[in-house]
Write a sequence for this structure.
């Protein structure tokens, strides 16, 4: 039998990409335009003003361009602001000032005081600003849209982000104004470690992200549900590249009453498709929740590595065996997850962060381990000799040979004469032996029993 191998295609990495910031007041269609340009639903779109809080990034290659740009969907600017709005505005202006090009998005029909204020504040960036008049769904609306010309900006284009009208015109204008001379294409020598930070709201996910990347990339607030989109950040640690995904907090279904929060939760779940390792953050001072169990099930069903991070450990009493007691309680709660690492953490103070990163790397390496078929079958042969499967005269079967069928997630198949007779307890025994003896100590394993009439020894010939 031929051994299955995986061929990894090196990832393309870009440095020095031109950056475009989409700016404007709330509910003017910034996220709709962002999604239109990216041809995907990366940002949440909802009629509720102020849905986008953290800037959301995406690589986009405009028509007529040979290389991508980095496009950023910023939070909306409001005149009447609370503390959260001030934080959103601060982050939006930071991205606007550093961008190579600004798309100032306004409504074709309504010009509001917020538009006027934004237009005035953006004037210092007029040389890199395009006024994009959105919701110009037809030529009839263009006549009203010309009212925005009174601001005096040189470049203006009428579009419908929802319906795609004049998007090609906008793309051509964007390409004409950008410079890719400092852009460099590189092949990544190794895979990024993709980490999803998950947990219920207000458990410290954004604080951990900011700690890892050394900046206030995510807005941190005591108000539950602050993060709604998935925020990405990249950094390196001891020569390893990480992509961190900070997700919206997940609540029990009964509490998901807003449409926007419903989409946030679903976006968090979809993040598991992109992640290698899930860091489940648990408030050590409050303990576990049913929602934590749901997240773990979703992650393990997809074969993701899981790390239980007991955050806010600095607030726990300094009593002997406190951590051991918390770990035992957690493992009792999750039962079949005894293999998953449990770590104390203080994202706020940085205690335990290095240990967390080291453990993430260990899980990632385990998830990408490929066992030679000959070594695997020798091990399976030894396990069977050491502890033969129980069988009665009427329920006899033989385990013939084994193959590794996948990496990241890890999966194996063992061929047997009558696989339906293999007890779950013996299947668990084999999974535990694979985990302990072959280097998969801390990750989930999928083991399938398949029917075969081949002899076990045939594999070794």
């Amino acid at each position: 039998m031929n051994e299955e191998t995986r061929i990894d295609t090196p990832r393309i990495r870009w440095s020095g990409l031109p950056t475009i910031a989409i700016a404007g007041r709330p509910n003017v269609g910034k996220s709709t335009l962002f999604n239109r340009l990216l041809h995907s639903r990366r940002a949440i779109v909802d009629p509720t003003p102020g849905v986008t809080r953290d800037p959301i990034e995406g690589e986009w290659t405009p028509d007529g361009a040979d290389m991508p740009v980095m496009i950023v969907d910023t939070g909306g600017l409001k005149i009447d602001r609370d503390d959260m709005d001030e934080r959103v505005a601060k982050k939006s202006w930071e991205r606007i000032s550093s961008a190579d090009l600004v798309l100032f998005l306004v409504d074709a029909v309504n010009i509001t005081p917020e538009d006027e204020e934004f237009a005035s504040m953006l004037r210092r960036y007029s040389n890199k600003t395009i006024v994009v008049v959105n919701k110009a769904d037809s030529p009839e609306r263009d006549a009203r849209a010309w009212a925005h010309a009174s601001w005096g900006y040189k470049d203006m284009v009428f579009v419908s982000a929802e319906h795609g009208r004049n998007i090609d015109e906008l793309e051509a204008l964007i390409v004409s104004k950008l410079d890719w001379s400092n852009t460099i294409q590189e092949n990544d020598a190794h895979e990024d470690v993709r980490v999803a930070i998950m947990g219920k709201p207000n458990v410290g996910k954004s604080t951990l992200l900011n700690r890892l990347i050394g900046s206030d990339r995510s807005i941190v607030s005591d108000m539950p549900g602050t993060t709604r989109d998935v925020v990405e950040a990249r950094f390196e640690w001891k020569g390893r590249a990480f992509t961190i995904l900070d997700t919206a907090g997940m609540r029990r279904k009964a509490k998901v009453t807003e449409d926007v929060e419903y989409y946030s939760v679903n976006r968090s779940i979809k993040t598991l498709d992109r992640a290698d390792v899930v860091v489940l953050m648990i408030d050590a001072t409050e303990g576990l929740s049913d929602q934590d169990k749901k997240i773990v099930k979703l992650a393990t069903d997809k074969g993701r590595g899981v790390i239980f991070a007991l955050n806010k450990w600095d607030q726990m009493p300094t009593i002997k065996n406190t951590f051991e007691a918390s770990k035992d309680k957690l493992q009792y709660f999750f039962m079949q997850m005894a293999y998953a690492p449990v770590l104390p953490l203080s994202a706020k103070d940085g205690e335990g962060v290095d240990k967390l990163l080291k453990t993430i790397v260990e899980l990632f390496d385990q998830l990408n381990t490929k066992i030679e078929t000959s070594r695997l079958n020798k091990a399976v042969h030894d396990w069977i000799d050491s502890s033969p499967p129980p069988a009665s005269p009427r329920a006899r079967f033989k385990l013939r040979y084994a193959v590794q069928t996948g990496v990241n997630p890890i999966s194996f198949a063992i061929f047997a004469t009558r696989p339906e007779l293999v007890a779950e307890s013996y299947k668990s025994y084999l999974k535990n032996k694979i985990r302990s003896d072959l280097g998969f100590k801390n990750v989930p394993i999928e083991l399938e029993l398949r029917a075969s009439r081949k002899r076990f020894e045939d594999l070794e010939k």
Remarks:
- The longest strand covers residues 399-406.
- The mean pLDDT is 80.
- Residues 319 and 325 are 10 Å apart (CA to CA).
